[in-house]
Amino acid sequence: MNTKNILIVEDDFLNRRVSKKYLSENGYTVFEAKNAQEALNLLKNEQIEMAILDINLGEGKRDGISLGQELYESFNIPFIYLTAYEGSALIEKAVATMPHAYLTKPYKDIELITSIELALRQFAGRKKQKQTIIVKENEYNIDLPIEEIEFIESDGNYLLINTSQKVFKKRSTIKEILTILPTSTFVQTHRAFIVNKEKINKFNIKEVIINSKVIPISKYYVDNIQLVCK
User: Fold this and answer.
1) What pLDDT is recorded for position 9?
2) Residue 84 DSSP one-character state
């Protein structure tokens, strides 16, 4: 089994450590978080390949389902839920965030390993078919094929995803979206811009032109754009 980076988000210290010990013994590299904020910090700074989310993260705290929704919309990694509750309303709410599995406590260790491996394989299979990112279209989330993206511009807490037909919004940052996009196709030209190098019509050391749209190149990134466009 190849080493895989797994994030466990669980507010109970003992449960978290027991899961970490078992997963580590089975070849996984495990990161721990006791709440949603710690989890988001790790997701932004580490190469996490999958997350295991306890739904109940403490009274008055952000729950695992809202974190799962953010993973689905912004981080493009598979995740599974753990819970001690089986209410139909809770299950319906959890399923709406598109998890890869839903395990009810207590579960067997082998069930956790099986769920992780199935989730990783299913996710890898979908990525090979066609890579997409989740964007907003009016009030709905849609899957946008990344090959349709011409360039991305930062706009406060959002990104403006520019295609030849329209501009989509996504709540994310340049740093976060770069962890999702293939480096063979996308390159950062400026602290606020990423371009699809396959859409570039022409460029110089100051700017890139894509379908008559001018995207700036800062001095910090000029070597990147010259290298990938050779």
Assistant:
1) 96
2) S
Contact 71, 94 (CB under 8 A): no
* Ranges 9-13, 75-79, 116-120: which has the least confidence: 75-79
Q: In what order do the strands lie in the sheet with 79-83?
A: 29-33, 5-9, 50-54, 79-83, 101-104
Q: How confident is the model at residue 224 (pLDDT cuts 50, 70, 90)?
A: low
DSSP string, 95-164: HTT--SEEEESS--HHHHHHHHHHHHHHHHHHHHH--EEEEEETTEEEEEEGGGEEEEEEETTEEEEEES
Packed helices 13-25 and 109-129: angle between N→C axes, nearest 10 degrees: 70
Which residues neighbour 179 within 8 Å (Cβ) at sequence distance 6 or greater? 47, 75
* Cβ atoms 6, 23 nearer than 8 A: yes
pLDDT at 2 over 80: no
Q: Which stretches of 34-88 are assigned E, i.e. beta strand?
A: 50-54, 79-83
Domains and CATH numbers, the chain: 5-129 (3.40.50.2300), 133-228 (2.40.50.1020)
Q: What's this model's pTM, rounded to 2 decimal places?
A: 0.58
Find the mean pLDDT for residues 203-227: 84
Amino acid identity, position 91: I
